[in-house]
Amino acid sequence: MPTCPQCSKPLREITRRCPSCQADLDLLVDYVSHLQGGLERAENLVKAGELGQAVWAYLEVLEVDPDNPTARKQIGQIVTAVRQFDSIMPGRRWANNMPPLEPAEPRPWWHWAIAAALVILAFGLGFAVAKMPMDAGPVEDDGKPALKRDNGHMGGGR
């Protein structure tokens, strides 16, 4: 039973004015009528066999009133049916002479051995490339390098 938002007294019937405090209840009346209209629409869709649209209609009611017992009951039944269908599915595969779904098997040991060998090879090649001598730079006419390398020392020349 709804209550008046102004005086918190229960309303025996939904009217546009509260019988106790004469507060304007237009929003409450629209709210309740929208919920009732949504429930009726959903029930008519169920009777017509339009279950997909009926589910959406019940979900619209639950958006407005999450505690609506009728909509919660109907959506709960639908969810239960979907869960049962999912659990029955392996049996249906067997009845249709289809192989059962098998869990994904782990890769064989040699897949992991090849992957480890490739990683080690990549690190080895990277190490070898890093140890290769650097290009000495431009060469003068007499065959000697034009620039002296610093041999890793930073700062002034010694």
Specify Rg, calculated over alpha carbons. Answer: 39 Å
| Secondary-structure element series | HHHH
- Going by helix content, strand content and strand pairing, the class is mainly alpha
Low-confidence region ranges: none
Question: What would the average pLDDT be, to the nearest integer?
Answer: 77
Count of individual helical segments: 4
User: How would you describe the shape?
Assistant: elongated
Q: How is this structure best described in words?
A:
The protein has 158 residues and is mainly alpha-helical. The protein has a domain at 1-102. 55% of the residues lie in helices and 0% in strands. The protein contains four helices and no strands. The protein has helices at 26-48, 51-64, 69-95, 109-131. It is elongated, with a radius of gyration of 39 Å. The termini are far apart. The model has no long low-confidence stretch (mean pLDDT 77).
Write the layout of secondary structure elements.
Layout lengths: L25 H23 L2 H14 L4 H27 L13 H23 L27
Helix pairs in contact: 1-2, 2-3
Characteristic key phrases:
55% helix, single chain, mainly alpha, 158 residues
Could you write a compact summary of the structure shown?
The protein is mainly α. Helices cover 55% and strands 0% of the residues.
